[in-house]
Design goal:
With 337 residues, this protein is of the alpha/beta class. The protein contains 12 helices and 9 strands.
Length: 337
C-alpha cells in the first residue's frame, strides 16, 4: 500500500489539519443546541461512529426538517471543528436540524469503508426517524469536497433503495476520481489546493486500484442511475479545484431533465465553505425553499427543465457552545478499528 511509504507524510498532514482548526477564530452559532451521540452501527465491520446533531433553539414542534451532512476529509483527515462552525450556522439560519455524519478514514480504512459507514448511518437514521425527531418527507443530504462525493453516492443509492431524499446539496464536490474532467482547468489552476495533493488523497483512498477510478460506485459522475435524483444544488468557487466536476455534472443532470441549480462564488477557491458566510446563507436558503419553509421566487422555477442495520444509541455528551474539546481534540480521529 502507498500508505506504508507515506506514513510520515500522512501523520504530518493530519497534524497540520488539527493545527489549522486550533487556530480557527470563528465561533459556532449561538442558540444552537448540540447533542453528540455515539452510534453503534452493525456492519460487516462492527464499530462505533459519532453523530453530532445541531438544533436551533427556535425549532419547535417536531418532527423537524433535517439535513444530513458529510464533512470534507480528503477521505483521510477529519475536520470536525470546521464542521462544528458550518453546521451550527446552517442549523441557526435554515430552520432545520443538521446531523453531521462520521466515517472511518483512509488509508487505514480505504474504499468502500467510508461510503459503507455513511450509508449505514443514513439507513439507521431513517429507520429510527421518530427517535431522531426527523420529518422523513423533508430530508436533505449535503457534503463538502470528499463529503460531496459520498453525499452524491449516498443519494444515488438511496433512490435505488427507494429511501427518502428530498434534495441534495453538493459543495465543491469531487465527483470524478479519475480526474478526467478538465473543462475549467485554467481557472482551477488558480486554486492554492494543488493537484498533486488531490492525487495523493485518491491514492490513499483507492490503494492504487486504477481500474476503480471510473467505477460508478466511486465516481458518481459515471453513474447511469441518475434519472430519479431529487433536486440538486451545486456550490463552488470560481477558482475551485473541482469546479469542472460540478459544472459538467450539472450539465449532465440538466440534459436528463432534472431540477438543478448552481452557485459560483466569484474569486473564491476550494476553501469557500470554510470561509464564506454567503455560502452558509445560500445553503440555508436552499433548504428553506426546498422544504417550503419560505416562499420561492417565481424566477427560480425557470430552472425546472430496506431493512436498516441494527443500531444502538448512547448519549456521549451535551456540549455548550463554549466547550470545544470534543471538536478540536478529536478532530483528526482515525477510527481505525
Amino acid at each position: 500500500m502507498p500508505y506504508k511509504n507515506d506514513k510520515k507524510r500522512l501523520t504530518e498532514h493530519r497534524a497540520f489539519i488539527l493545527r489549522m482548526q486550533e487556530r480557527e477564530k470563528r465561533s459556532p452559532a449561538k442558540n444552537v443546541k448540540i447533542i453528540i451521540i455515539l452510534m453503534s452501527v452493525l456492519l460487516k465491520e462492527t464499530s462505533d461512529l459519532f453523530l453530532v446533531i445541531y438544533r436551533s433553539a427556535q425549532l419547535k414542534n417536531p418532527p423537524y426538517p433535517t439535513l444530513l451532512h458529510i464533512r470534507g476529509t480528503g477521505f483521510n483527515a477529519s475536520a470536525r471543528y470546521y464542521s462544528y462552525i458550518t453546521c451550527s450556522h446552517i442549523a441557526e439560519k435554515s430552520g432545520c436540524q443538521v446531523i453531521d455524519l462520521d466515517h472511518h478514514l483512509a488509508p487505514e480504512n480505504p474504499f468502500p469503508r467510508p461510503f459503507n459507514d455513511v450509508y449505514a448511518a443514513y439507513k439507521s437514521i431513517i429507520f429510527h426517524a421518530n427517535f431522531m425527531q426527523i420529518d422523513v418527507n423533508k430530508i436533505a443530504i449535503s457534503g463538502y469536497s470528499s463529503g460531496g462525493n459520498l453525499a452524491a453516492l449516498m443519494t444515488i443509492q438511496a433512490k435505488k433503495d427507494k429511501l427518502p431524499v428530498a434534495l441534495q446539496i453538493l459543495i465543491s464536490p469531487i465527483l470524478d476520481l479519475s480526474r478526467s474532467l478538465k473543462k475549467y482547468v485554467k481557472l482551477e489552476n488558480k486554486d492554492s489546493f494543488p493537484n498533486s495533493l488531490v492525487d495523493w488523497f485518491i491514492e490513499l483512498y483507492l490503494q492504487n486500484n486504477f481500474n476503480a477510478y471510473y467505477a460508478p460506485e466511486i465516481s458518481p459522475f459515471w453513474s447511469n442511475s441518475l434519472i430519479s435524483l431529487p433536486p440538486t444544488y451545486f456550490l463552488f468557487g470560481e477558482y475551485d479545484r473541482f469546479r469542472s466536476d460540478s459544472e459538467v455534472f450539472y450539465d449532465k443532470l440538466n440534459q436528463l431533465g432534472l431540477w438543478t441549480y448552481k452557485y459560483s462564488f466569484k474569486e473564491e477557491n476550494h476553501s469557500l465553505f470554510w470561509r464564506n458566510i454567503q455560502a452558509i446563507e445560500t445553503i440555508s436558503t436552499q433548504l428553506k425553499m426546498g422544504f417550503n419553509l419560505m416562499k420561492i421566487p417565481r424566477l427560480l422555477f425557470s430552472n425546472f427543465s430496506n431493512e436498516a442495520p441494527s443500531l444502538k444509541f448512547k448519549f456521549f455528551a451535551k456540549e455548550n457552545n463554549d466547550k470545544f474539546e470534543f471538536f478540536r481534540k478529536k478532530s483528526s480521529i482515525c477510527l481505525s478499528k
